[in-house]
From TrEMBL:
Keyword set includes rRNA-binding: no
Organism: Cladophialophora chaetospira
This protein's name: 2-hydroxyacid dehydrogenase UNK4.10
UniProt keyword terms in alphabetical order: NAD, Oxidoreductase
Cellular component GO terms held in the UniProt record: cytosol
Entry's Gene Ontology molecular function annotations: glyoxylate reductase (NADPH) activity; hydroxypyruvate reductase [NAD(P)H] activity; NAD binding
Top-level division of the source organism's lineage: Eukaryota
Domain D-isomer specific 2-hydroxyacid dehydrogenase catalytic: 66-322
Keyword check for NAD: yes
Family: Belongs to the D-isomer specific 2-hydroxyacid dehydrogenase family.
D-isomer specific 2-hydroxyacid dehydrogenase NAD-binding domain: residues covered: 122-293
SUPFAM superfamilies given in the database record: Formate/glycerate dehydrogenase catalytic domain-like (SSF52283), NAD(P)-binding Rossmann-fold domains (SSF51735)
Database matches in InterPro entries: D-isomer_2-hydroxyacid_DH, D-isomer_2_OHA_DH_cat_dom, D-isomer_DH_CS, D-isomer_DH_NAD-bd, NAD(P)-bd_dom_sf
Amino acid sequence: MTKPTVLLIGGLAHTNKEWEQLGSKYNLKEFRKGTRQQFISNCTSGQYDGVVALYRSNTSLSETGLFDEELVSVLPKSLKYICHNGAGYDNIDVDVCTRKGLKISSTPIAVDDATADIGLFLMLGALRLAWVPLVAIREGKWKGKAELGHDPKGKTLGILGMGGIGRATAHRARAFGMKIAYHNRSRLPKELEGDATYLSFDELLAQSDVLSLNLALNSKTRHIISAPEFAKMKDGVVIVNTARGALINEKDLVAALDSGKVASAGLDVFEDEPKVEEGLLKNDKVFIVPHLGTSTYETQKDMELLVLQNLQNGVDKGALLTPIAEQKGKLNGHL
């Protein structure tokens, strides 16, 4: 019996051995390095005919570019599963893939703890206005012009997007004595909600002392936080974003920081990465890191393993373990 064929796009950092072991039951093909045009050429020439599932690594965007209509249109007709490494998948055109019957998985679960950790780190840095003294001490100026910060205790942490990362963030924030409020498209069941308060979007904006963004980026959520939303927030609110930069209109955030409407911000993600809005770079009230949310050995390995598990479950059992939200309940998605 002929082995199913699977394709790896991009490199692997921690699971090359596990990938090679799949050769016992699959025919393995690879496109670890190359250009978008080379990949498209390989597709159109039939090099990947017969591929049932593909692993799209964290670094594969530099190899193939966006999984947009142009690229999806040349993928082999045999393909059924796109197993993506990353909690966010805004560089995949989900609608185009869904119309073609392609099932997509991402890596929620595996990223929850590390992303929540960096979120709390950024929140504390923003509350304490830590950037100024951190820079000052390295310049031999001790505290420099450091200002008094704020405690998290007693503050309301508003979580926009109470998925796995949002819930992991809430769990950590409770240890600091924070009150938890959240907004989702739909309210969570009680066992997941716990003591968190479910609010409408506008209520969350109005009541949060700290607003944490933990939702996916798509056409509906792009710039979900802009000037009109800042106007509805408390004076002196703190903004934390570990999800995607384009959830916030960065120029509007700069204006809100300059006016004092936003007291400070903790940011791990930016709209035009690796380029960062100048107004954010130059503002001492912005505590920033360069997209480090999942940058731990343990999390990176867990993500790679989860992608391989999705790939195997798709090929062997006909269903993905962690289908993306847009396809849950569709295309035989499970979990």
